[in-house]
Amino acid sequence: MAFSFFSDLMINDIAIDLGTANTLIYIKGKGIVVDEPSVVAVKKATQEIVAYGDEAKEMVGRTPGEIITVRPMQGGVIADFELTEQMIRFFIRKAKVNRFVRPRVAIAIPSGITEVEKRAVRDAAEHVGAREVYLVDEPMAAAIGIGLPIEEPVGSMVVDIGGGTTEIAVIALSGIVTHISIRIAGDEMNEAIVQYFKKKYSLLIGDNTAEMIKMRLGSAAPYNEKSSLSVKGRNLLEGIPKTVEITSAEVQEALTEPVNAIAEAVKLCLERTPPELSADILERGIIMSGGGALLKGLDERIRQETDLPVIVTDDPLKAVVMGTGTVLSDIYKFQKVLTKPKREYGE
User: Fold this and answer.
1) CATH number belonging to domain 2-140+320-337
2) What are the pLDDT digits (tens) for 64-110?
3) Over the stretch 151-178, which tens digit does the pLDDT of each residue have?
4) DSSP state of 28
5) In CATH terms, are 153-184+258-315 and 186-256 the same topology?
6) Could you tell me if 164 and 187 are in contact, meaning their C-beta atoms sit under 8 angstroms apart?
7) H helix runs in the chain, sequence order
8) Which of 82, 183, 218, 347 suits a disulfide with 214, CB 3.0-4.6 Å?
9) pTM for the whole thing?
10) Nearest CA to 161 among 143, 130, 186?
């Protein structure tokens, strides 16, 4: 019993889904301990951070002039290194990680990022105390989290739609055979809704309002349930608050462009897939994960575009971090899917 307690203290493996919209942290033996928005609130004059995560998200669009809200992750990569490092440090502290043991850290990353962007992720983790940093491609992590047989000589296709990127990959024999990563995902959907209100109603709405509209009324054709919602914003012509009634059909129209882009990327990935693996996908279908997979009708839209079965996993928001956590639970078994970013000469 004493040995078990001591072993638990020594275990400090941390899996992180460092997403554009949300950051999730998984600790071996504890499960998911942090699930918060990737947002920080900063004082302009001093660059002092005044809030992180949920607290900072509530401040978006509501801050006084001396405070701004920032999303240090953009398009699935680090846009502000210092803020990202401090945000990770805060979330790890909140997760109550054992401070006496430097952890091994695995971080899920978009499959299409550059070596420079990979090094930025590695450096951020090392600066907060990681002794080893491993990177796992998001679609691979999602596939493991879903429970797909990645080690077998059969093709599995994953479409992971996050906040900043949509990751599409065909996986077999513990490797990614073909993949496409596009920076069109949940954030682009929110922006499409903001622009729709500007053009049609001359109404300015905030990002949080756009996200709420997407979650409550958002859909992709052929979904045709009729519903409506009162939306408050600022009239761009008169400069005063205004309320408009918007229908689900209008939101579907607003989302047409990003939905089309995702469907086209899925078809392009299928075109690049070797025929033997295509036969496997025909039998097994396409698996969807990530928050964007919850958009009503999107699975049916991809089903119509590809004529393949499409399945949304049971808990799409947590698939990536659960897969990354599973990797750390048996790091030797999943050695093939782990990558250390290349170090620069002299490091």
Assistant:
1) 3.30.420.40
2) 888 999 999 988 888 999 999 999 999 988 887 766 678 889 999 98
3) 999 999 999 999 999 999 999 999 999 9
4) T
5) no
6) yes
7) 2-10, 53-58, 81-94, 115-127, 138-146, 186-201, 207-217, 248-254, 256-271, 275-284, 298-306, 319-329
8) 218
9) 0.89
10) 186
Strand-pair partners of 339: 135
Task: Give me the CATH topology for the region 153-184+258-315.
Answer: Nucleotidyltransferase; domain 5 (3.30.420)
Out of 3.90.640.10, 3.40.50.300, 3.40.50.800, 3.40.630.30, select the CATH number for domain 186-256.
Answer: 3.90.640.10
Strand order in the sheet with 228-235: 203-204, 228-235, 241-247
Of the candidates 12, 9, 26, the residue with the CA atom closest to the CA atom of residue 325: 26
CA 240 to mean position of chain CA atoms: 35
Cis peptide before 222 (omega within 30 of 0): yes
